[in-house]
Amino acid sequence: MYCLCETGPACTFTNAATANVNGCICGGAACSTSGGLYCFSGSSACSRGSACPNNNGALINSVDCSCGTSACNSFNGMFCSSTYNQCSSSAISVCSDTDGNSVNSQTCICGTKTCNSDNGLFCHAGQNHCSKECSTCGGEGSLCLETDGTTANSAECICGDASCTDTTGLFCDYSVSVCSTGSFCSKTDGTTSNSAGCICGAAACSATNGLFCISISSLNRCAEACPLGEYRNADSSGVCTTCPAGQYADDTSDMRCKLCPAGTNLVEEGNSFNHNELSDCKNCPALSYVPFR
Q1: Mean pLDDT, to the nearest integer, of 276-280?
Q2: CA-CA to 257 of 20 to 30 Å: which in 1, 163, 208, 266?
Q3: Are strands 86-88 and 282-283 parallel, antiparallel or unpaired?
Q4: Nearest 5°: CA angle at 270, between 267 and 276?
């Protein structure tokens, strides 16, 4: 969080291609004659130069310039890789060793990060991670090897932006940077029960509160099976809802409704007991039909 103690007009040119005439506000930054009048509002960056002419990371630029969403200058380096929006004090290329086991010889691009002598030249591109020691060899600072949340790691490890420990748990879900003391639910759309207790987003599912997990968007909910004739999914916000016309539900292990067979229909709505078995689907009246669905 920052506090911008400057007032003034918003910058007219905000794509870093054209200099503004006077000082102006560039997103969360204040551009000035001394700091630079080229504004890139997407990253609140001001620069004294236009887009970097050397932008493949191999050649140094001679003046301050904009490198994608970054601003290259004497502080963060004059080598620009616009593909990765990265500036560096030395030539930039994609890391040749990207499994975290071997050290790279120079500054390089590691996924969305830049590995250098400051943050380390061991690159694990799969987790966008730079370190000064082997990141998959065990020991302090090692990355989690089990990252889908279903299997516990054997030792403390880094899980995205989180640290998995004996206290926070050794189950890592790298996709959301979350550590847990229990495995994460493998079935998360609310239609099928998980076989055992598991972590469902911010909730913990168990035999007590239900093994059906709905973890989609901001919805993290555990629930028990719906009654026959009802279904549950993200569209129903995890609430058991009577099957619509033409459908029924006769299995509490599957929270989805089934279509009535061709030539039959189910017009009754509103009451789940009218949608809870195949026999609720009635033959179509004479001179009418329901096509195969």
Answers
A1: 91
A2: 208
A3: unpaired
A4: 75
Helix (H) or strand (E) holding 31: strand 29-31
Rounded to 5 degrees, φ, ψ at 142 are -75, 150
- Dist CA 198 CA 207 (whole Å): 10
Q: Dihedral of the CA atoms 80, 86, 89, 94 (nearest 10)?
A: -90
Q: How far apart are CA 121 and CA 12, in angstroms?
A: 40
How many Cβ atoms are within 10 Å of 170's Cβ, its own excluded? Answer: 21
Q: Please, what sign has the CA dihedral across residues 115, 118, 121, 124?
A: negative
Separation of first and last alpha carbons in the chain: 55
Query: Closest by alpha carbon to 211, among 241, 239, 228, 188?
Result: 188
3-class DSSP state of 109: strand
Per the structure block, which two tokens stand in for 20?
Answer: 């503004």
Q: What is the DSSP string of 261-285?
A: PTTEE----S-GGGSSSGGGSEEPP
Structure tokens at 246: 């033409």
Q: What is the pLDDT of residues 118-141, one digit of tens each?
A: 888 999 888 888 888 888 787 777
The pTM of this model reads: 0.46
The residue extents of the domains of the chain are: 24-77, 93-131, 148-180, 230-283
β-pair partners for 213: 222
Helix (H) / strand (E) containing 108: strand 108-110
Q: For residue 131, give the amino acid letter.
A: S
